[in-house]
Task: structure prediction
Amino acid sequence: MNSVRRVDVWTWAMVLGFAVIAVLLVWPLWSIVAASFIDNRTGVFTLNNYVSVMTRPLYQTALINSLIVSLGGMAGALALGVPLAILTTRYQIVGRDLIGTLSVLALVSPPFIGAYAWIMMLGQNGWMRHGLAAIGIELPSIYGFFGILLVFSLKFFPFVYLMTASSLNTINASVEEAAEGLGAGTIRRLFTVTLPLVLPALSSAALLVFVLSLADFGTPSIVGGRVRVLATTAYNLFTNEMGGNPGLASTTSMVLIVISLVVVALQRWAVRRRNVSGSLLRRPQPRVLKPFASVMAHLVCYAIVLAASLPSLVVVYTSLRKTSGPVFQPGFGIESYTRVMHEVPHVIANSFSYSTVSVMMIVILGTLIGYVLARRDSPLAGTLDSALMIPYIVPGVVMGVGFVVTFNVKPLEITGTATILVLMLMIRRLPYSVRSSASILKQIKGSIEEAAISLGASPAQAFLKVTLPLMLPGIIAGALMSFITAINELSSSLILYVGRTMTMPVRIYLSVLDGEFGTAAALSTILLVTSGAAVYAVFRVTGRKESAFV
Amino acid sequence: MARVDLRHIEKGYPGLKALDDVDLVIESGEFFTLLGPSGCGKTTLLRTIAGFIQHDSGEVLVAGERIDQMPAHKRNMGMVYQDYAIFPHLSVADNVAFGLKTRGRPKPEIAERVQRALELVQLGNHGKRLPHELSGGQQQRVALARAMVISPQILLMDEPLSNLDAKLRVELREDIRDLQRSLAITTIYVTHDQEEALAISDRICVMQSGRVHQVASPQKIYAEPATLFVASFIGAMNIMPVGSQEGALAAADLPERLRARGPMTLAIRPEDVIVGQSTNGNALAVEGAVEKVTFAGREAYAHVRCANGLHLQAHLYRPSAGQLALVGESVRLRLPLDRLHAFDAADGKRVELPA
Result:
């Protein structure tokens, strides 16, 4: 669509968008790029940091470990998500909504909660390890690759499941029937027709899982044991105050960014070549399975979602155990809650207030910028869109490092303040909000707004009276999801917090490291309940659409 | 109600001339149609008038006043869209009231004018409904009422009937025409459907590749197409290049006075082609074999392959059984000279044949 080029409200929205991205995204990233090429002591240009990262065994191992956990997490998520998607969309499974809801809940609960819940279950004294050992099953130590991959698989499979299922649901039923009519059996049909058709969604989900696994800091940090990955290495290099090495931390960050970039580029390229969207005339109907197959299918589906829900259940249960100090006692009690209320009330308040403020900024900025992207087809809008890809590929640890090295000098000396945490939460989630606003807008015909203008409404009035009301359900759902990610954010907050700006995820992380599982569980339960309530609200607003979460 | 002057409008996109020196006058109260294939520039021109596209050069005047630098929302034009563009979150009455509310009219006046507009489009008791409860045709009626209720200077319609099924299309097009006549609103109507254009318009402007080919009444456009493009786009037409190439009419078959004119393309409408013997002596005669006869009820079309691969269609009004069984037979076709259209082979412009 082509619109009259005049300075109007949307020109200012674009200017604002560029300003925000320049200051909060491009500048911090530039600082990292610059730092990676500068010698820490002499301050002159050098390639030594890159030489070190490429040649020293410590970094080589971290790189290899990162690739192993990312690929492994991806494989695990696919192994769980794809069968679940096929079974629930093609066959009669009782309680499909429950499966969807449990998957979404697994998706929105922070990975570090899963990590320490699994330690409680499968650690040296874990009840599940003992239980399994009693029936002769010996598991490898939870600390290390086993733990990381277990957590990643169970945490990230919902992306694969939800994206694949929603794609499976948009395949015209006649396509698969035609394959059947041509003599293709169930398995053959699956591999020659169904899976190729959902490949774009499947590959997007797989690569998303790869990028998330690569960026995740909390999981390898908690259950990694001696397995160090790039994200934890960068964090350690940076926070190691005395021997802190910003040059090497930045270079490690650059390696993370480059890998993500390559993977995202690959994903876009793969999806571009396969545009197989057709018109949905008839939705596929789930078939009824024979009794034995049906029992097996139900077992598989429920085993997956229950395993994914287990950490949350364990956390809630743990939070309600009787404690005395950090030591658990027999029976139930609310000591953990009274402790967090007494000791760290400001942490809870911080989490809620930072998230709320950042979400308000996200909603306003995201809606305005999303509008510009969807409705203004100009090279500038394209640039804005590309710049907004950055947070997708930059891990939280890296953004945190970038913020600290950028905003510790005047005029923007905000390190150690609540502002820097709020801005970080805002910029990390903003692109998702922009994308979702833009996609909602693309479903609202441009002619509707034009009609309002031709009836005498100014562009701003037309937006407020016609477009905004139509966007509202989508905006609210997007805001709730931003809130969920904001309140659960660990990695960047861990770099930016100081004592009085501590948030719940940071506190949980530190408690877990200190072995204070009771307070960690109480805070985690507060996070889980908050996230669950937000999920419920999204369901109410969108009319139960699990796909809204991916 | 106002006259519209379009003066030398130009609009280019990279690698594309969307509007090429469009110079038109639309009279006050006229039903004026922009007709052409997709990509011809008709919608670009309409949206330029509405103010949603900024043209590169030229002037748009409404009632003698230049409006092309005015923002779209101040132009006081009613617009009707192909996809209805009904506000889905507002009731039918609120949709229609929208333009009056932005103009700050008093409430009682709004209520009264909305009701009157809805009655005009036969939706008098649908005001409380929500758009999704209405059919496509009804939604377009709401859009029509919404555009007209503001008493626009000009009513702009962008393929308003294209999303409706055939029967509804004819019905609504008659209603639009009647309404426009009774309110005498200057109306600019965009369509790619030539039959619709012929049925509804006072005058038609045929466009192609951003250029105006002909502006004239429907009758004139049909009877005297100004260019080969208009001839081929409006109605059915047998196009006959003259020459020795495949599918052409041999120059030797033409009377001397036609040959003298130089290279040209001849054309004739199927209904002007006479099958079999005729008393009309002043006609070209061509022989050919009937390949097939397409029966369409009241009429039929005989497809005839002539010498040199020339393909002609002849219209058979109320075809007899004998005519329908002509397939495979050789026939003699007569092309009356006074029914032939001639176009310059180089620029496609109409050439008047000497009598």
